[in-house]
Amino acid sequence: MIVVGNLVNSGLDCGVTRLARHQYLSSQLRFTVKKPKLYLLFLFLIVGLVCPQVSFAKEKLAVMDLKAKYGISKGLAEALSVEIRDAIHSYGDYEVLSKEDLETLAERTATLQYLGCAEDDSQCLIDFGRKLGTEYMVAGSISKLGDTYSINLRLIDTKGKDAGVKNRANEKCKCSEDELFNTAKSVAALVMGKKKPKIERVAEPAAPEGEAFTNSIGMKFVLIPSGTFMMGSPSNEPKRDSDERQHRVTISKPFYMQTTEVTQGQWREVMGNNPSYFKNCGDDCPVEKVFWNDVQGFIRKLNQKEGTNRYRLPTEAEWEYACRAGTATPFYFGDCLSTDQANYHGNYPMPGCSKGEYRKRTLPAGSFQPNAWGLYDMHGNVYEWCQDWYGEYPSGHATDPAGPSSGTYRVLRGGSWYNAAWFMRSADRYGYAPDFRSGDLGFRVARTF
Predict the structure, then answer these.
(1) CA Rg, the chain, in Å?
(2) What is the per-residue pLDDT across 348-370, written as a single tens digit (0 to 9) for each?
(3) pTM score, two decimals?
(4) Domains in the chain, please, with CATH?
(5) pLDDT for res 180
(6) Alpha carbon distance 352, 269 (integer Å)
């Protein structure tokens, strides 16, 4: 099923502002002195000692998302844009707007149309920056020719007579997508007039042995065995949808699956923030309000932190296979699902099943009994992003299906605290645009064995 939207003092007055400081400088304090520069230096030393919290304003800079060209996916371009934005922010030279702030400001100033500026249209970007009140803009593109990626960036000054392109940078990379993120950091440094960062490569540790392991930030994983199952739902399953055509699927290799949804604490450990709507639920509750592209950034940083490239989202087939854990009923608990077994809208049970509680919020991950393979909350709490684009199932037997090569929506599975019981079914499918976020969208991580 595809949906487009969802819910959910000292004697010296420390009020000497940045503007006042600027006025003092421009008027040279309206005093006649023989050595104005020494006098100004003396004054600012006094102000700095008495009012250390007063500081000069940083100029604002907005980083536009890279334009995806020549076979580059929008998701990859957006993930690389996050890397560039983070790199420029880390230099500390400018007040760098987050993408969310940029979009909010564009909406507030009725300039949303400028988000579509062509990456080579400097005047459009200058006009946009001026309307937003940002002094600088960074824009560019990502393309691929053969097996070589190319990232182009421009730094644009939006101020007065000097408005225009101030610097350009280009980096090419004959590399994997994972290594491409280091290239993004390099080109960000070059366009901002910095030295290219030194890339330290970490040797990948051996894969964990055994059927379960816990990584460095406390994420627990269990080994899911290879096997074959019937994906989708039988034609007589209550409340099934037409996109659930039943077909035989083989998962040819074992893989690790996180036992719970990624928590707010785990997200903060990796990303340094917490986007969740239900922050008051605590660190053990699932992180939500994360769109698919955010999740890719989390996984990339988790891989860097752990010195590997094996963490990823599960495919849709892996997700359903792991959820069912050998069962063929609507839920791994059977034909009915009670609110003592999962967090969902208990006023809307499956036909012929009993009503239950509607909690109207998320609960700590792992609050209910797991399935036979040790996975918690595969039904309810928050929807979980999968790697696949949403599309029709194959008609015959499929081995390790990964969904369509492109699409409009990314797959979500498992249902949430907000939905009726039938959206919790093992076979139920949902799809959202990869840049959509809501208080009931989360994820769990898989790891290649």
Answers:
(1) 26
(2) 999 999 999 999 999 999 999 99
(3) 0.63
(4) 18-45 (no CATH), 60-191 (3.40.50.10070), 212-448 (3.90.1580.10)
(5) 84
(6) 44
